[in-house]
């Protein structure tokens, strides 16, 4: 049976299955949902078996359990590992939802619910495509599934789990549907992610809060000093001043810059959506280059002194900041972390004590468009959406993708079907039914072409 | 009877009277002590009448009541207005006190209690000197007392009270014992106070917190921007860069600089006490000049973005700072406030919105050493402490002193007997009995010489 027809005939069941997952509020951030995590994992186990897996099992981790399943075709055939996550973000603020977050509803051609896209809906796309190819005898390779329950809280247990189960997770390529496309009419595949390095800075001036009248002007204020230090990190041209920071940054290839320039992008609309009058970034690069192919430096948090109501004069003892850099592929986050610590220590004046603590980091990621699995995915999108997808780099970081590469030595193809309007992590999360169907078609086509 | 002898014979009673005030926990910051405020005011009323006032009364204000008392000698004689405050700071942390803060104790020649110095002890010095001159028929001028109960919370009701009672408070000079000396062997009179201007700055970038991966590098981060703006306010030489900021700043006269240079000051000890390795301030000025005769700029508080545990990546919507300048005499705080607002708006880049809100301010103050009342005070200190007191400017601000000057048109002589070791506002506040006695002698001598 042709895939379009198969979806038509089985869609009511697909919805029932997806809704049965959505109705379990598997919110990983909230400890009171501990039982829901296991319930959701168990439901996936059932659904994976029903979809055609030979075996499926719940696997414990340091945190929430994982679901592993597989369909073995042949020892000689390549193996695809499909990663997804069954946990969701909290649904607050509840009053902004038009229908209940954990009572899925179909309205205006969309499925509305927490997890409708991220990642229950997108994972279901993978599972239903798998079901189709298995049931029609079209599967030529082995398929493994690993679904985790802690993605929305930063996958704290996944790294150790992967290291422990290298053999079980052995595969030739990883397939993930957890990213988004440029638009419903602008299919795209994510081929790059930025890395991350994160630090906390503590500046200590005097050993206690001082009277700013008695000491002000004579003793360095740690907040003033912290601001001066942080103001130095980016220069007039929007470049990061840390020595050797750009050493491993590959210039964006001309061909890629041309492709980026072709992405329909309305800067006025972009600014209006976030209500700013002007943009700011590294000189010589466009906005889309700046937020995807170039590194950035952001102060994520700052605090010190008196922050209550009204006014209190004080020359405080301490000032703090949490700062981060988005890195581009080839920049090693540990090397960058050290360069940054050295730099801040070097520019720190002798009238304060400065402590820079690396918090965490992750490598960037690039998926070569010459990868056979990438090309199969490209064909899938082209078939389902009627046009060849653009290869785009994204500015965010998905640390697990680089963990997979580092620990398992496998590339990942980010075959995501999300849309910005799907409002993941927000009230009224949804996925258009049309996209859900096209997603299944695209993944089926991937299997046929891999 | 000679004053020394008078103190000796009456000291037990002085202590009893002072202790009766101290035992009333008149903590203005804590609403649960509302009744104590009135109780303390009433006790002062009794004591002022017993000390020789013709009349004394409790006067309501928008906040805590004030105590007014007077002794009228002659319509032709000049009038001295003695200001003090009967409220005290909270006593926390209680566990650091060696004896109970509101159960005064005499140990090792000191009185230990909250308010022993600030300002019950120092006010008592004034009242007992007044008692002596009245009882011995030595008072040649009229004396008025005004004791408020909100000094430790910024005297919020005093300004309106003064404006309403200009006639009642009419005087030729104001006498205040609420400051400190350089040391027990280094008597000094405070002749200058710095003014203050205070602002809150709000920087708004995007209209909501953004994903630092998706937007970082392309959209200006308001914390980065705030740091850059604040870093510009002080230049390499430690000078404030606001245009026209120094227009009204009088260069410290050479004679005064010479006097300052003579003040025994150990910079190494000063640094060790606050545990800093180096000092920082305006080029061309000494530490004692910087913290008393020169303006300063301090960031009193800063906050924005994620300030919790661990790391969270965010490109926040807002960043805030509370900033203040200490001003020197002749700098008008309203003029400076406007200059600062204009400057920040001028340097604010177009990719953020910046709002600068003036919070409060006060003028600096100078007491000319040619003022007859100053010279009488100088004689008082010389007699009691055996050496001529130094005239020193202090870096702090006492807004009420400039309010008195502006509203009533009267200069104040700051005849304070505190010592740094008296630990005002801290656990184990105390006053040496020896200083208490010398204070009374000095004030008696002031009355005889004014």
Description:
With 450 residues, chain A is α/β, with parallel strands linked by helices. Chain A has 2 domains: 3-192 and 365-449, Aminopeptidase, CATH 3.40.630.10; 195-249 and 295-362, Alpha-Beta Plaits (2-Layer Sandwich). The first copy, chain A, is built from 13 helices and 16 strands. Chain A has helices at 3-22, 34-51, 120-135, 158-164, 212-215, 222-231, 254-262, 267-274, 287-290, 333-347, 372-385, 399-408, 433-449, and strands at 55-59, 66-71, 79-85, 105-107, 110-112, 142-148, 173-176, 188-193, 195-204, 296-305, 318-327, 353-362, 365-366, 390-393, 412-414, 430-432. In chain A, strand 1 (55-59) and strand 2 (66-71) form a beta hairpin. The radius of gyration of chain A is 24 Å and the shape is globular. Chains A and B meet through strand 9, helix 5, helix 6, helix 9 and strand 10 of A and strand 9, helix 5, helix 6, helix 9 and strand 10 of B. Strand 10 (296-305) of chain A pairs antiparallel with strand 10 of chain B. Chains A, B: Residues 191-351 form the Peptidase M20 dimerisation domain. Chains A, B: This is Peptidase M20 dimerisation domain-containing protein. Chains A, B: One of its GO terms (molecular function) is peptidase activity.
Largest interface summary? A-B, 80 and 79 residues
Compute the number of helices of chain A.
13
> Given the helix and strand composition of chain A, which structural class is it?
alpha/beta
Strand content of chain A: 15-25%
CATH topology of the largest domain in chain A: Aminopeptidase
Question: What would you call the quaternary organization?
Answer: homodimer
User: Largest sheet of chain A, described in full?
Assistant: 6 strands, mixed
Mind telling me which CATH architecture of the largest domain in chain A this is? 3-Layer(aba) Sandwich
CATH class category of the largest domain in chain A = Alpha Beta
Q: Tally of extended strands of chain A?
A: 16
- Alpha-carbon Rg of chain A, integer: 24 Å
CATH homologous group name of the largest domain in chain A? Zn peptidases
Read across the widest sheet of chain A, the strand sequence of neighbours is: 1-2-6-3-7-15
Distance between the termini of chain A: 20 Å
Bulk shape of chain A: globular
- Give the integer mean of the pLDDT values of chain A: 95
Q: How many separate domains make up the residues of chain A?
A: 2
> Which regions of chain A are unreliable across 5 or more consecutive residues at pLDDT < 50?
none
How much helix, percentage-wise, in residues of chain A?
25-40%
H-E string of chain A = HHEEEEEHEHEEEHHHHHEEHEEHEHEEH
């Amino acid at each position: 049976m042709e895939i379009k027809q198969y979806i038509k005939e089985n869609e009511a069941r697909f919805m029932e299955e997806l809704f049965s997952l959505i109705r379990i509020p598997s919110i990983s951030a909230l400890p009171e949902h501990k039982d829901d995590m296991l319930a959701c994992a168990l439901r996936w186990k059932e659904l994976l078996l029903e979809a055609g897996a030979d075996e499926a099992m719940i696997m414990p981790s340091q945190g929430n359990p994982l679901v592993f399943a597989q369909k073995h075709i042949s020892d000689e055939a390549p193996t695809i590992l499909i990663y997804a996550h069954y946990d969701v973000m909290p649904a607050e603020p509840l009053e902004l939802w038009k229908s209940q977050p954990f009572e899925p509803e179909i309205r205006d051609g969309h499925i509305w619910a927490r997890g409708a896209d991220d990642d229950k809906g997108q994972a279901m796309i993978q599972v239903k495509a798998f079901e189709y190819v298995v049931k029609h005898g079209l599967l030529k390779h082995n398929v493994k599934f690993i679904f985790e329950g802690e993605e929305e809280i930063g996958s704290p247990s996944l790294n150790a789990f992967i290291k422990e189960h290298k053999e079980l997770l052995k595969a030739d390529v990883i397939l993930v549907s957890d990213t988004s496309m440029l638009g419903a009419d602008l299919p795209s595949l994510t081929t790059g992610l930025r890395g991350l390095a994160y630090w906390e800075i503590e500046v200590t001036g005097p050993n206690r809060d001082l009277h700013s009248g008695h000491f002000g002007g004579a003793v360095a204020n740690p907040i003033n000093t912290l601001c001066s230090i942080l103001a130095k990190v980016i220069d007039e041209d929007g470049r990061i001043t840390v020595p050797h920071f750009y050493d491993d940054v590959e210039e964006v290839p001309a061909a890629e810059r041309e492709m980026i320039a072709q992405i329909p992008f309305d800067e006025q609309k972009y600014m209006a959506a976030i209500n700013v009058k002007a943009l700011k970034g590294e000189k010589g690069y466009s906005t889309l280059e700046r937020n995807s192919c170039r590194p950035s430096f952001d102060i994520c948090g700052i605090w010190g002194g008196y922050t209550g109501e009204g006014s209190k004069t004080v020359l405080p003892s301490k000032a703090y900041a949490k700062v981060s850099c988005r890195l581009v592929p080839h920049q090693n986050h540990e090397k960058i972390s050290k360069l940054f610590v050295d730099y801040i220590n070097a520019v720190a004046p002798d009238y304060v004590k400065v402590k820079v603590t690396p918090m965490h980091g992750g490598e960037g990621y690039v998926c070569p468009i010459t990868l056979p699995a990438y090309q199969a995915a490209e064909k899938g999108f082209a078939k389902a959406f009627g046009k060849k997808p653009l290869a785009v780099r994204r500015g965010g970081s998905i640390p697990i993708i680089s963990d997979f590469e580092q620990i398992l030595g496998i590339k990942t193809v980010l075959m995501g079907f999300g849309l910005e309007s799907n409002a993941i992590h927000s009230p009224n999360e949804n996925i258009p039914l049309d996209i859900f169907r096209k997603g299944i078609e695209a993944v089926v086509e991937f299997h046929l072409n891999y």
